[in-house]
Design brief:
The protein is of the alpha/beta class. Helices cover 29% and strands 16% of the residues. Bound molecules: NADPH dihydro-nicotinamide-adenine-dinucleotide phosphate and oxalic acid (OXD).
Length: 321
């Protein structure tokens, strides 16, 4: 009997999520396995053993009686967790150094941008103003990272090596050398009180939805060198209350925001975020999923699984991440 087929369901809608590109990559890394780009006209659902997916429609994975594993082609599984018909087979997410390093680049870029007063300096340049301001050292700034998982822990480590005072907040207790670690709701306020620049790398779950709201922003440190605190969100748009962010930027509760993710993506053309002078906006590309790296990661996992080994980075449906 031949090897079970792999179904590819990719609905990203951007260049990086071109289904044809992913199909070509999977054909190369799974040469002896049928790779079916769905929707397809002519196939037997029973031949599908694996599904590699990005934002499949709800119910799209329900019709494969022999499905063994679902591979999410990104790190965040919130879209899949929202599908009540998701087959009860292991769901594997992405955790690879390529994606982690890309996210750390984004976090470091944006922390430095606010630390080094780039918004002010670019505005000065546009106005032909030679107007340097006092620049404080990195060790005067407290960066707080919400989410100390694969992505948060790596960003914390690099920021610490640049010299920032780094803290992190997670659900369970974590220990990272040189990083002050907080966990659970009871320790959230202490974490926020010492934070000048807040970085959010949480997954979107029932517990974290709209966690970035006015109540939380009001607890951030207002006495750091940066002045009004800054928020950087590269987790998911559903983590943020967008009306609260805008109101807090306008009344000075927040000094600035870097946002890579939004409740509605693509961000509608009439969104006030596009032109807000205190917002640095990117189109959900903090850390692209690289088709070369991720197809190899999935192929390796299938090989190990079929040889009787354990799958890695399996999502816990009870936690939702
Ligand atoms: P991980 O699962 O490795 O880490 C998640 C972290 O969040 C863990 O430290 C976890 O705590 C913490 N956490 C989860 N729920 C809570 C909670 N209720 N209270 C406190 N802490 C909590 O995920 P990754 O680091 O790999 O990815 C994080 C998210 O980043 C993804 O879910 C995705 O949404 C987003 N992402 C965005 C990208 C982009 O381009 N913008 C690209 C890739 C990912 P604990 O350690 O106790 O489990
Ligand atoms: C991911 C993403 O979760 O791209 O990997 O957002």
């Amino acid at each position: 009997m031949g090897k079970g087929a792999l179904a590819l369901l990719v609905h990203g809608g951007t260049e990086n999520w071109s289904p044809e590109r992913w199909k070509a990559r999977f054909d190369e890394v799974c040469p002896d396995r049928r790779v079916l780009q769905l929707p397809a006209a002519d196939f037997d659902p029973a031949e599908i053993h694996y599904a590699a997916v990005w934002k499949p429609d709800p119910g799209e994975l329900a019709g494969f009686p022999n499905l063994r594993v679902i591979f999410n082609l990104g790190a965040g599984v919130d879209a899949l967790m929202a599908d009540s018909s998701l087959p009860k087979v292991p769901l594997v997410r992405v955790a690879v150094s390529d994606l982690t390093n890309r996210m750390t680049e984004y976090v470091v870029l944006h922390v430095l941008m606010h630390h080094r007063q780039e918004l002010y300096l670019r505005a000065s340049q546009r106005e032909r103003q030679w107007a340097p301001k006092f620049q404080w050292p990195a060790n005067a700034v407290s960066v707080g990272i919400m989410g100390l998982g694969t992505l948060g822990a790596n960003a914390a480590d690099v920021l610490k090596r640049i010299g920032f005072r780094v803290a992190g907040w997670s659900r369970s207790r974590r220990q990272i050398d040189g990083v002050e670690c907080f966990h659970g709701r009871p320790q959230l306020e202490a974490f926020l009180r010492r934070t000048d620049i807040l970085v959010c790398l949480l997954p979107l779950t029932a517990d974290t939805r709209h966690i970035l709201n006015r109540d939380l922003f009001a607890k951030l440190n207002r006495n750091g060198p940066v002045g009004a605190p800054v928020v950087i969100n590269a987790g998911r748009g559903g983590l943020q209350d967008e009306a609260d962010i805008l109101a807090c930027l306008d009344d000075g509760t927040l000094g600035a925001a870097s946002l890579d993710v939004f409740a509605r993506e693509p961000l509608p053309p009439d969104s006030p975020f596009w032109t807000h002078p205190k917002v640095v906006l990117t189109p959900h590309n903090a850390a692209d999923t690289d088709a070369d790296e991720i197809s190899k990661y999935v192929a390796r996992q299938i090989e190990r699984f079929e040889a009787g080994g354990a799958l890695e980075n399996v999502v816990d449906p009870a936690r939702g991440y």
